[in-house]
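Follow-up to my post from last week.
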Amino acid sequence: MKRYCDSLVIGGGIIGLSCGYYLSREGFKVQVIDSMEFGSGSSGACDDMILLQSKKPGVVLELAMESLEMYRFLHMELGCDLGFKQMGGMILIENQEELAVMEEFVSSQRSCGLNVDIVDREELRRRQPHVSDRFISSTYSPDDSQVDPFLVMKGFINAGQRLGMEVRYREAAVTAEKNGAGRWQVLTSTGCIVEAENVVISAGAWSNIVGGLFDISIPIFPRRGQLLITEKIPPIGETNLWSASYMVTKLRPDLAKVRENQSEYNELGLGFSFTRTAHGNYLIGSTREEQAGFKKLVDYRALEALSRQVAHIIPLMRHVHIIRHIAGFRPATPDGKMILGPWPGKEGLYVASGHEGDGIAMAPITGKLLSDIFTGRKSITNMKELIPRCMVV
Amino acid sequence: MENEQNRLICRCEEITLEEIIQAIDNGCTSLNEIKRYTRAGMGLCQSRVCSRLIARIIAEKTGKPLDEIVPVTARPPSRPVRIDIFSPRGCNVKNS
Ligand SMILES: Cc1cc2nc3c(=O)[nH]c(=O)nc-3n(C[C@H](O)[C@H](O)[C@H](O)COP(=O)(O)OP(=O)(O)OC[C@H]3O[C@@H](n4cnc5c(N)ncnc54)[C@H](O)[C@@H]3O)c2cc1C
Ligand code: FES
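User reply:
Got it. Predicted complex:
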């Protein structure tokens, strides 16, 4: 059997679905295929944050701010609830050294227009009465928000289908070649050949494997993240939470403190995030593991480390039950920026992937920018840093 | 009939028969997929109560034999467990 379309999107996670939707909106005939099921990639195994505070000033922060603005109105456009909430966020600061680093970081973000501040101990207590009093201050941004990734994916599917988009799960891309007329012929696992003018690779952490079908090497690799899901409980603070120590380690490696379990800490890439979902469960994260490859298993070590960490930071949480422990694969790139745009030397081949820990936040802007590239409309944002670039992996 | 449609299939997440059927009509064919699509099975009991009911609905709607319907992916902990069980040292943190 053979099918025809203008654009074939390979990978139906939140990014592929956003690309599919925005391309359909421009009148392209789009098909999205995905080898697994709805939500079985990283977009179904992650936190739900649109987190601006963690971003360094530059293109990523600018795009995240734009994406957040899009999310504010997206439910109207897609015609359904997306679980969008703006709870704000605080990054907890434990000592003077961390404070100094975070003060500098926050002031550079403010100069980019981000609404963020450092608050004193008293305000921290007021907004977060249950946080251990070891913390001396924190950042606060009212803008940090969240959505329900499953609702966003469903929203893109339903609104896209109304525009003629087709979405097929359980159909993998298997081989790809160009025909005489210069159109892509993609053979799929159902034995179908999809002929398309353009192909978009948005297969998340698996993008480089799909790239192989097109003889290209995309510098995207899996960075596993494990997190814990609690039973539903009432809100125990005003905002979502992170701790500064992980960010300080990244910004100022020389200040990284030596811990009791340093090697375990490094291997797991342990950082603290604490967010309340629209449904009332808390998500306690997370690890950033380099060596786990595509192993979807969770491990007891991480369960213990994440539990210990949250009990240490929010003692009240000791009494709360964990109902599930999950792992997902962040699509990571060597320079930490997503890859978006036409692949050089391969006409009609595009990549939209590599969002690592920000794919949920960046989904709307990614699809929108891709459709801007397709239509040749000039985009306001500086794209140079995102278009496929040679990187040493 | 309307009452039947409103029947709760997943009690923990309050998901009705109608929502399950809608998910199947929209192309969901497995317990895992219905779980992600509707939240049925994501609750406190982690689908222990609802998964057999949902499997039966899938079988009825799609004609798939019941024993071919794969159970939901099991993830630890298999029962709700209090955080302090995993974090004995978290309880007596120094300098607090
Ligand atoms: C623990 C954790 C916490 C996170 N927290 C956040 C957060 O708070 N905020 C945020 O913005 N982001 C967060 N992320 C990151 C976010 O989950 C990802 O950036 C995002 O889901 C990536 O979406 P995607 O569509 O690119 O990938 P995926 O959702 O993984 O989708 C890729 C799809 O490609 C399909 N595929 C693979 N191979 C093929 C093939 N050959 N043919 C067809 N299809 C194929 C797969 O089946 C998969 O469905 C987190 C991630 C983790 C792991
Ligand atoms: S009844 Fe469905 S999760 Fe408990």
